[in-house]
Automatic annotation (TrEMBL):
InterPro entries in alphabetical order: Emp24-like, GOLD_dom, GOLD_dom_sf
Protein's name according to its UniProt entry: Probable Endosomal protein P24B
Localization in the cell: Endomembrane system; Membrane
Zinc recorded as keyword: no
Listed GO CC annotations: COPII-coated ER to Golgi transport vesicle; endoplasmic reticulum; membrane
GO BP annotations listed: endoplasmic reticulum to Golgi vesicle-mediated transport; protein retention in ER lumen; vesicle organization
Any matching Pfam family: EMP24_GP25L
Organism, as annotated: Hanseniaspora guilliermondii
Similarity comment: family membership: Belongs to the EMP24/GP25L family.
Residues annotated as domain GOLD: 30-117
Keyword Metal-binding included in the entry's annotation: no
Keywords: Membrane, Signal, Transmembrane, Transmembrane helix
Transmembrane segment boundaries: 172-192
Length: 202
């Protein structure tokens, strides 16, 4: 019974560390957030750029930077559509991470991101054979699956919009062709009727 309570408490604490957010990025702007980390803590973030426009057919991209406690760049990605970064805090303090849209005028660009942090445990160490390490490893795998699903949802939305746009163009092109054929048929009937018309002179 105590073991079940311990497992439940550990799992709830790990879930509390996980957060999923979607934020709208301003045109030519950035959105920044922060986490307070202790030395040796592990901080992971995965993100995916998207478009809130219902008619969007392109996969958008942006920049991502993590700043350390002394405003030094810890990690950076430029012109990326999605990514996943894990850092280990080398010193305690506030770590800022920014999603950047400064090279684009698009005001419907958003970013969906998941963050989770753990107190450092070496999962590859064979001596780390504890329940806590197993739960942390399971939590990490669950987060990886969740992040992959979020990425696939946004990709499916983009591809669906592309397919609907293509279908719409095909429909209007077919209507245009039908109108041209009808007008051509009417013109030919009228022209042939005039051609075979007998004209009598008095």
């Amino acid at each position: 019974m105590k073991l079940n309570i311990l497992i439940s408490a550990i799992f709830v604490n790990l879930l509390a560390l996980a957060n999923a957010h979607t934020v709208l990025l301003p045109a030519r702007g950035r959105r920044c957030f922060f986490e307070n980390l202790n030395k040796g803590d592990e901080f992971s973030i995965s993100f995916q750029y998207g478009d809130r426009s219902l008619t969007a057919t392109e996969q958008l991209d942006g920049d991502f930077i993590i700043y350390g406690p002394r405003d030094e760049i810890v990690s950076e990605l430029y012109e990326t559509q999605h990514g996943e970064i894990t850092i280990t805090a080398k010193s305690s303090g506030k770590y800022n991470y920014c999603f950047i849209n400064e090279r684009s005028d698009i005001d419907t660009k958003d970013v969906t991101f998941n963050i989770y942090g753990i107190i450092y445990v070496d999962l590859d160490n064979p001596e780390t054979d504890s329940l806590d390490a197993s739960v942390r490893q399971l939590s990490k795998l669950v987060h990886e699956v969740k992040n992959e699903q979020s990425y696939l949802v946004i990709r499916e939305k983009t591809h669906r919009n592309t397919a609907e746009s293509t279908n719409s163009r095909v429909k209007y092109w077919s209507i245009f062709q039908l109108v041209v054929v009808v007008f051509n048929s009417i013109f030919q009937i009228y022209y042939l009727k005039r051609f075979f018309e007998v004209t009598s002179y008095v």
